[in-house]
Amino acid sequence: MIVRASNNIPGVKTTFVGSLNVHDILDCDKFIISQEAVKLVEEVYAE
Fold first, then answer.
1. How far, in whole angstroms, is CA 24 from its chain's centroid?
2. pLDDT digits 0-9 by tens, 1-47
């Protein structure tokens, strides 16, 4: 539902946590992420 809604906003890029990479995170002015997704990103990128 979020992906469909964000398609109407120019300049917004959406992606799923499984395909998110560091370049996606660093290449944006603003980064909005759900709390559940933060936990998944931490599992991948935490030491």
1. 8
2. 888 999 999 989 898 888 888 898 899 899 999 899 999 988 888 86
Instruction: Give the global pTM.
Output: 0.64
- Ramachandran region, residue 17 (left: φ > 0; alpha: ψ -120 to 50; beta: rest): alpha
Is 41 within 8 Å of 17 (Cβ atoms)? Answer: yes
CB–CB of 20/41 below 8 Å? Answer: yes
Alpha helices in 1-47 (DSSP H): 2-6, 22-26, 35-45
Compute the distance between CA of residue 43 and CA of residue 38 in angstroms, rounded to an integer. 9
